[in-house]
Amino acid sequence: MDSYSLRAGADPGADAAVNAADLAARAAGVHVREVVELGELEAVHRLYDTIWRPDPSSPPVTSELLRALAKAGNYVTGAFDGPQLVGACVGFFRPPAEEAMHSHIAGVSAAAYGRSVGFALKLHQRAWAMTRGVSEIAWTFDPLVSRNAYFNLAKLAAGAPEYLTNFYGGVHDGINGDDDTDRLFVRWSLRTPEVVAACAGTVRPCDAESEQRRGAVVALACSDDGSPVPGVPDGDTLLVAVPPDIASLRAAEPERGRAWRTAVREVLTAAMADDLHIAGFDKSGWYVLKRDTTEGQHA
What we know:
This protein is of the alpha+beta class.
């Protein structure tokens, strides 16, 4: 199936987006395409079960739901290494119809880690959306997961304007455990120069050390033993640390994992309520938040 057939109202930048997606897929050694047949939809369901290891009563998706979403023209896509499904992404249109999408779930098999399959999936999703006139894709991610923060905010150059407390309730799967499901809400504006550059491989720069030399305040740090250490959340630029590997921490020391959840929640929600925005994420494990001091910006 040709995923990229231009539709009425297609974005003028769709051709370039398609080229970027094709390059990313080739670099990852996969073929990314829509999935519509029942057998392959069931394979997507099994892949997600393998990744998230959910409570049987609460799977992230079901084959029936995937079938309905695909039939209704939504985004259900797999990344294939030969015949093997190694990644998948699912999204649906949100109002106003076909001008924006919500990307509900994306995952990559452990067998394909380190190949940038997730990057290839997101660039395919962007190109697919732009051929249909969609200008923005939104999704959520756990703010404690450092690699996802870096992927979303640096590699994709997305923004994260909203903190959602315990958004999904208790899901009790192999990744979240019994922790609250706090999320950052991501908006990916598909046509901005930063996003175009990111899709061409230019990571959005963010250097916490440089920011600190310029006067940034550490609002939350990580101690030598891996615990959150509150700082002084008062300034026009704040640095907020997250643990290096929250998944391992939750498994080994769940109480410390919950302490990180509370600490990051308190600092980020307070800072964002005080008109600071998340400007980026340093791969070493720091959110950088900045106040927009442009006169009249918040009038």
